[in-house]
Amino acid sequence: MTNFLRRTIRFAHVAWRAAYSLTEYGYLRLKLGRSLSYSERAAWLHRCCRKVLPHLGVQVEWHGRPPTSGLLIANHLTYMDILLLSSMTPCCFLSKAEVRRWPVFGWIAQLAGTIFLDRKNPAALLRANDQLRALLAQGVLVVLFPEGTTSDGSSVLPFHASLFQTAVESDIPLTPAYITYRISEGSLAEDVCFWGDMTLVPHLWNLFSRSVLHAFVIFGATERGFENRKEAAERMHSRVMALADDQKTASGTSGHTPEKAPGTHGERVAAGPVHVTLAKRAEMDGSP
């Protein structure tokens, strides 16, 4: 298959899936006679992402148990991280305010219950914190990318401690995760990661020309009981860095991601490590 044909088919599928998902959202709202709750929105996005990723040539594999509530703390490389994590478990996201203005994707993000952070607007930050408390109180899993931006994947950037304030005040459990990708044709930094002054449509057009994109996530142990937001940020950063180091070591020795999620010293809420692919997960729960 030529690159142009592959790109065209994948863009067409994204457009069709977006239209289908928006129609489904409208149907659900009419059926319920009210706005969808945050948990219902998270479940809707979960279904959308699980169905679209295989058609984009993305092969998903993860190690450990994805949390079902609290805050999921992860490094951030690209917009694909959102599709990736949402395909694994229903969740909502904290995102920078600029995403709201993205064509189509911004609208879907709003419908999915995304909390948009505008650090330059104190009033908007207060509203975002109130929204975050509401989601966490309802038991919805919220994904936080505390680097505050995307990177080229060469390292994990420092975490912004202010983003942990609400979780520390409410003693919310935090689960670290490390995300990475492997691509046989091209570069992780230039062809997968979305950072610097890159623009969305040209980046997508290039990414969709690649035959297969391998996506990996390692989940660490869940922890809680932090004294302050600085401690929470520093400890979660060290946990994510440890997951990254273990993954790189395993990849360097075997060519694969580790069979088990690396251990940490936090309180483990979930049971022991699990090795699952997206295809295997579909077989487990019988979803298409």
Your description of this structure?
The chain has 288 residues and is α/β, with parallel strands linked by helices. The chain has a single domain, classed as Glycerol-3-phosphate (1)-acyltransferase, CATH 3.40.1130. Helix content is 45%, strand content 14%. The protein has ten helices and eight strands. It has helices spanning 3-32, 38-52, 80-88, 105-111, 122-137, 165-169, 188-192, 200-207, 229-254, 278-285; strands at residues 58-63, 71-74, 92-96, 115-117, 142-144, 174-183, 213-219, 275-277. It has an eight-stranded mixed β-sheet, sandwiched between helices. The longest helix is centred in the first third of the chain and has 30 residues, at 3-32. It starts with a helix and ends with a helix. Residues 254-275 and 282-288 have low confidence and may be disordered.
